[in-house]
């Protein structure tokens, strides 16, 4: 059974950093793309970053230069390093895997940026 589990969220002050992790299990290979999304209260879910199975990556303009996405195929994990956090980064962060045309989602992890 395919499963994605996010971790690493929490409360951080503005300007601080957090490192989120998405652990994948149940995949029979590493040929899947991973996406990070976030959803703030009262807002639609928005794209944050993505990394392909071969390591190509891109980030949304709102986080470019502050967030970095990376993956370790041997450990089946994808990390989202978030620096210079702002209150507007507060949201539930979700990872999504696209594997042979099917989408899989994790349950999300809360990130709160507040003083």
List the helices and strands and how they pair.
Elements: E1 3-7, E2 10-12, E3 18-25, E4 33-39, E5 46-51, E6 57-59, E7 67-72, E8 77-82, E9 91-99, E10 102-105, E11 109-113
Parallel strand pairs: 2-11
Antiparallel strand pairs: 1-3, 3-8, 4-5, 4-9, 5-6, 7-8, 9-10, 9-11
Give a structural overview.
This protein is mostly beta strands and 115 residues long. Helices cover 0% and strands 54% of the residues. It contains no helices and 11 strands. Strand 9 and strand 10 (102-105) form a beta hairpin. The radius of gyration is 13 Å and the shape is globular.
What is the SS-derived class?
A: mainly beta
Secondary-structure element order, as H and E?
Answer: EEEEEEEEEEE
Number of helices: 0
Instruction: Label the overall shape.
Output: globular
DSSP summary, beta strand count: 11
Rg is 13 Å
Average pLDDT works out at 96
Q: How does the major sheet shape up?
A: 7 strands, mixed
Question: What are its keywords?
Answer:
115 residues, mainly beta, 7-stranded mixed β-sheet, 4-stranded antiparallel β-sheet
Summarize the entry for a quick read.
The chain is mostly beta strands and 115 residues long.
């Amino acid at each position: 059974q395919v499963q994605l589990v996010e971790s690493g969220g929490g409360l951080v002050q503005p300007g601080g950093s957090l490192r989120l992790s998405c652990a994948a299990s149940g995949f029979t290979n590493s040929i899947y793309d991973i996406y990070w999304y976030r959803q703030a209260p009262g807002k639609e879910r928005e794209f944050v970053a993505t990394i392909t199975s071969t390591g190509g990556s891109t980030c949304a303009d709102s986080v470019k230069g502050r967030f970095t996405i990376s993956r370790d195929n041997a450990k089946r994990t994808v990390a989202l390093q978030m620096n210079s956090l702002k209150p507007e980064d507060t949201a539930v962060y979700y990872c999504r895997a696209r594997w042979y045309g099917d989408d899989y989602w994790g349950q999300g992890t809360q990130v709160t940026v507040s003083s």
